Request: fold
Amino acid sequence: METILTIFIIFIAGATGTYFLGKLSGILRSVIFITTLLVTSWLFFTAVSPDVIIEFEIMGILMSWGLTPLAYVFAIIVFGLAIIIGIYAIKAMEGQRSLNFFFANFLLSVMAMFGILISNDLISFFIFWEIMSWSSYFMVVLNHKDVQRSGITYIIFCVIGAYAMMMAIMIIYSYSGSVMIGDFISNFHAFSLGMKWLLPILLLIGFASKAALMPLHVWAPGAYSNSPMSYTALFSGALSKMGVYGMVIVMIMIVQQIPDGYWIKEVIAWLGGITSAIGTLWAIKQDDAKRMLAYSSVAQLGYIIVGVAIGTPLAMMSGLFLAVMHGIFKSTLFMVVGAIERQTGTSNFTEVTGLIRKMPWTFLAALMSIIALAGIPPLGGFIGKWMLYESLMGSNHYLLIIVIFFSSTAAFLYCYKFLFGFFLGQEEKEWSHVKEAPAMMVVPMIIMAILTFVLGVFPGLILKPINDGMQFLGYVSTDNRFWEMSTIFNDWGNQVVMEPIVYTIFAIFLFFLIFLTLKGYKNTRYVTTKDISSSGEIPREDENLTFITGFMQPFFRAVAPVMKRQIDKYYTSFGKGLEALFDFTRRIYTGNGQTYALYFVIFVILLLMFRDSLF
Amino acid sequence: MVGSPVLLIAIPLLAAFLIPLFGMVWKESVRIVPGLVLAYLTYLSASLYIEVINTDTIVEIIAGWRPPWGINLVFSPLTGFLTTIMTFMGFIVWLYSYRFKRNVEFEAAKKYFIFLMLLVAGSVGIVITGDIFNQFVFIEIVGISAYALTAFYTGRDSAEAAFKYLIMGSLSASALLIAIIIIYSQLGTLNMAEIAANIDNMNPYYRIIAMIFFIIGIGVEAEIFPLNGWAPDAYTEAPGPVGGAFSGIVAKAGIYAMVRMMFTLFDIAGPMKILIVIGLITLIVAETSALRQEKLKRMLAYSSIGQMGLVLVAFGMGTKAGVFAALFLMLNHAITKPMLFLSGSFLTFNTTEKYIKQITGMAKKMPVVSIIFVLGALAITGFPPFSGFWSKMAFLSAAADENLLFIMATILIISIFEVVYYFRVINRLFFFEYDDKISVEPHKPGFNGMIALFVLAFIVLMIGFYPSSVTGFIDLAADDLLNTHQYIDKVLQLGQTIIQ
Amino acid sequence: MESVGYYILGVIVTIIVAFMVGMTYMGLSRKITARVQNRKGPPFYQNFIDAFKLASKETAIHHGFMHHAGPAFLMVASIMSVLIIPVLNDGKWFPNLNFDGDLIFLLYIMVFGPLGMALGAGQTGNPNSAIGVTRGLSQMVGFEIPWVMALVALMMQYQTTSLVDLMAVQQTTGWLMFSSPFAFLAAVLAMLGMFRYSPFDIVGAPTELASGPVSENGGKYLFTMMSSGSIFAFAKLTLYVDLFMGGADNLIELLIKTFTIYLIPMLYGMVSPRYRTEQAIRYFWGWPLFFGFLALVHAMVF
Reply:
């Protein structure tokens, strides 16, 4: 049997098994769950070849499945994250509610993402897209938190995107008689001018809603923060990338064929830039780590979209590289929050401080990921950021680069807030009982942290599949032109060579670390965080001097005008207005028989009056 | 031949009258006999349908009077398709209510099953008859049994709902009668095929007037706006399975009568503006009203009305693809909506108000029923891989073929509201804590009810994963509806005819 | 490809030069400030004495690993900057890492240190440190924008992101200070914030915050920080000289040019009162930002 089908069958069997056999024993559930992920990933990485294409017909529509090199890049993200997060989730979810459902649904989500990636036609793409939507929806509301608000917001934006996409797909189908993505691309020139604009825009709305592009991003904070963290890691890391995947295809293969399609690219790029700026600002303001990371995801996806939308080889490379990196570091951060929440019971910065000595490994993972997120060399995030900046300069985006720079500089604020809020600050008695998270949770996080480092030193590892994917999109190979195993180049031939830089950094760091440690080793001692110079007063044990409330107040005083307007509020009032309107239409049904009889008469009269125009 | 189409009407009618007699002998037979009858009807209808598909349309002539003078029954791929759905849904409703009514006393149960039989008989009659006056009679039979079923729980609200239904039903009946009179006075015939053959000879002015009165007359059963004021009340006050029967059987018969009249009787080719306009308005008003409902059944009722609007829009496109989509939507709706009504009434079994908030957190107590409810909700909102997706897709594809982008957009936007109100309920069901103060006592669903639900769920999944299992039938049915000349020819003695 | 030994030698020599020059400049700045304020002031080598005193202190306390390692992070940033910024024109000095990193890399490695140290400061548990850090980071967002605008303008105008290339350009076109005046203005105004002299010294306000981020450090920690600060100051000044003043052909020229640049924040600081953080941010988003825009427009047009 075809490997792709085998993978699907294993997924479905695994999900069913997880759900039903999980009722018997928790261990069995975990075993089935992990086995499913491992087997499918193993099959995927070893046995799925891009040449095999499966074709079949449903309702007279030809469908086709097969793996493209571009999809392979995203599939790496999906399967890689799924395994690591899966291992983490087994321990992290212990004692939570609806475990059988969670793990089965987790597998369904992964399957749906895999399905999206192997779909060569729009209908099966859409089917898997929707499966992904509802399975992720059930995860968002799984915690019974803020269900009717954040859950409904999420599903609304899901279906807005899905329906926009479906409309486009149906138009494509009825106009060209084929739903193959390849056919659509090659027949695109035959569409009328209006359709040439309408179709990509509809498709982009669909993808942008998953990628949380402004103004379709309002679901993200609620959805990301309310799902179990073990799922949010996948949600933000892999699921949102499906939107990026769609956008890559549309931006490169379709929009380029539109006359003056340049403008769509510019608009999307700017939306991406603004998304990243706004997302960053709101992320700084959050006191809850989950919401902060959610906004941060919105912002980071903004960068990715900028790269994808600019579309020069370097920009596309940076977009895809950032997508991989974001998958790695953001899911690590969500896992960190999950670990902290599990160990302390809260994810709020204002409640928990000073965990660094309690959870050192978690801190290490968080530190590495944050460094990667901030784009500071030598970790992987830097490579992506660097390529993004260089591509923006190479493609003459003078102002956009400033916006991007602003948001990535401002990102330092929340990066610091994250580390400081949880791990630094004064150590409190209240949290003195906290232990390090179990090894099954820590090891996945550490693996991811190491990955950020490895990809920072040797970006070529992941740039190679990206290059293949881009060649599939029609780019000329960028190997040795824009990147080597450890070197990256920009459009003008300037380079950053990571290897000597990294070695030097480590040499310097180790040298001074050794210097600081060895010099006066005997007379250096550790003192608690209560023993500080505080104007001669020594804080008592129960006094918490950690400064975390209103953390970045001065900064917000400076950017107050931008923060005053919030798109959520407009949506909320729009929604309220609609509900009020519908309350009115509901009153058409008065419940009074006489009124209904009156309607009857009016209807008769109306029909008689308009008989010429209606028939 | 396994039997003739007339049995589809005669047997339930006969059974309805015999049930009290059986009841005198053995009380339990009141429950069992309808089941046997409906099972037989389903079998009969299905086997006739298969035969019709394989050979040719059956035209049955009653009492030896050949058309156009006598009454004839037409069992074609279209009517067979609908009849099979209806009898099957009748059986499912019976299966569900078999023990559901055990806590109801004998007299009430007797009434319930009698009227259920009449409802099915009438609906099937509406579909397979080839005579407009005969159709009028069946519409009345359906109406009367529906009023009675609405008022089943003898109480103030039920009576009021039934009375509203009665008012609307009577008004519509008079409108329908006017239409029939106009036609008869113009063409001198009541046979549909004959009318269709001669419709061009009719004075265009009278033709339009007749059509308007037809639309109004049938519109009440077909739940079009603004003639559907009765529906929310009736669906709410009637017992749960009756809601399912209304949406799965009666509404389908109404829609059928409407489109048969438009497509065949008046032989309108091409898009029908009136159906599109009425359908869209019905859809918008119903779905937006549903968004603000507090009672579960009422919400489902509005949703049902909305779906009927959608079906009308699809028929209104007048193309093969449109009719195909409409029939597919009808099929899915006929399966899914009863599934929602039936599972919903299990969930709200122990309450009389049936507020949505009363099922808060019920999934913990009644997991299987809740999951089936969710399945139904996902299917009706068109989420793949469930059945509703394919029909929605067929619909949009048909609309796109006709370049009706505005309609596509409208319907998709309206669908967003649909998703919102269904997901609100799903949230309440699954993702809220069970709360003793708000939620109702869980009810242990009966074995038979669960089987009914499982069968429906199976069909939803089957169509969802393998839509080709039904699309072939729908395709034939759509062809049948669109080919007016073939209908005329078949009925006027060129088809496979049974004379009795 | 030079040998590793030569490379290490270059690194060490560069660091030592940077350290000496930076320390001297800081001492001079104290002296000059004192003279302007009509005080006698410490001798210019006072900073060396301070550093020596700190270095010879035997005892030290720390509040945990991040605090302990914070100064090392700081050092990484300072030394990496010095290694990437070419000291003299035409490779007359050790090339170090000049060709391995470009301006964007430099921008990022320059914030590496402050962030690392901010982590160390955070672990002390001293609220003053955290307050200082938030102020510092906020202010950084302020001055980075005009600074980046200036750099982007230069980079795009000359189609290169390499400092070496930009210096080579100036060999033919003359100082960029004159050919790109707006970029220079924006960069210089941003530099005021970068050096954290008054009026932008609220980060480590000595009186109210007990020196802010560094408040819990002493002995070897403070020594490392101080050395790092002086190396970093040298790096930044050299960067300005390289970017806008045509680089330098020998060390003497470099010293003159860097000191001239150094006078700007110093003198500006002497005559200005202190800004609050949001005032500082608004300051940077006023005229400096405007000049930054002009620089971009200039780069776009030419």
DSSP finds 19 helices and three strands in chain B. Residues 156-187 of chain B form the longest helix (32 residues). Chain B has a mean pLDDT of 85.
